[in-house]
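User:
Care to share a sequence and structure tokens?

Assistant:
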Amino acid sequence: MSRKKESTAYETQRLLLNQVRHRILQYINHHGNVTVREMGEALKDIPQATLYRQVKLLSESGLIRVCGERQVRGTLEHTYTLDGRLTDDIASANGDTSVQFTLLSIAQDFADYYSGKDADPGRDMLDVSSTPMLLSDEEFAEYMAGVKDLTSRYMGNKPTSERRIRRVTLISSPA
């Protein structure tokens, strides 16, 4: 078994800037303990060999870890979870590395989109808005709970020919 190396902040940033690895981490974060097969069923646009290779890199870096194993037709299937250091950072309101990586990932997504030959913001319903609101802490918590409820209605959608991946990002910042 290979020895897992501890990721430095730079190595972690480099790993998270890759869109496929970032999507894998987001998937695990939203769905909990998952197998590569389960990820592959949801992330159909990622080739299976790429998915396995990127999961291996994330595991070797220590960002995800094996939390279970089971025998499936002569093959050992691993179940993965986020490493505790990463979940602590994601959960932390002051998770500065998580915030930075997410913002960098969003910037990379836009750069990738606009560098493509088929970029059409109107057709693709690209939308960016910023709305300053006067809210108490209680009102803001209520607002965010409503956003979370609305988002959770669609998180479990299964892939179909009509559905495609849409990244919806809500960023709250002091004004």
Q: What stands out?
A: Residues 1-7 have pLDDT under 50 and may be disordered. The CA atoms of residues 88 and 94 lie 10 Å apart. The radius of gyration is 18 Å.
